[in-house]
């Protein structure tokens, strides 16, 4: 396996995708944010002073998808055909599970966009709750699956929440 983001001089470059086939591509990333039980309950009950934590985190995650190429230096600026963020409440482990799905039809995939969505959603939850719980931890952000492109389908069987 060779690294493709380096030119002949060993310096970073954006990979030329012009010869790649246009295919439908989908990526799903997951992650979690752990917090105190009281913090999680306030989110569930809608009692956070800054407002609807998960509603704001969802919009922030989608905005993160749209700005990924501005944040990751060698990431292509691509057309996104769809993105969604889903949240799950894990009361047993006092955490919120985050899942982002991103789709496009193009010459390069959307894995970085999905990972960015989860990261930004988790950071937004942290920001909205930090006044009462600075000890929150963002955990285990990973690519769960992807499809499309030359490499086809990938399902990450090494990670789970």
Automatic annotation (TrEMBL):
Pathway: Cofactor biosynthesis; molybdopterin biosynthesis. Its EC number is 4.6.1.17. Residues 14-149 form the Molybdopterin cofactor biosynthesis C (MoaC) domain. Gene3D superfamilies: Molybdopterin cofactor biosynthesis C (MoaC) domain (3.30.70.640). One of its GO terms (molecular function) is cyclic pyranopterin monophosphate synthase activity. Keywords: Lyase, Molybdenum cofactor biosynthesis. It catalyses: (8S)-3',8-cyclo-7,8-dihydroguanosine 5'-triphosphate = cyclic pyranopterin phosphate + diphosphate. Catalyzes the conversion of (8S)-3',8-cyclo-7,8-dihydroguanosine 5'-triphosphate to cyclic pyranopterin monophosphate (cPMP). This is Cyclic pyranopterin monophosphate synthase. It comes from Acetobacterium fimetarium. The lineage of its organism: Bacteria, Bacillati, Bacillota, Clostridia, Eubacteriales. The gene is moaC.
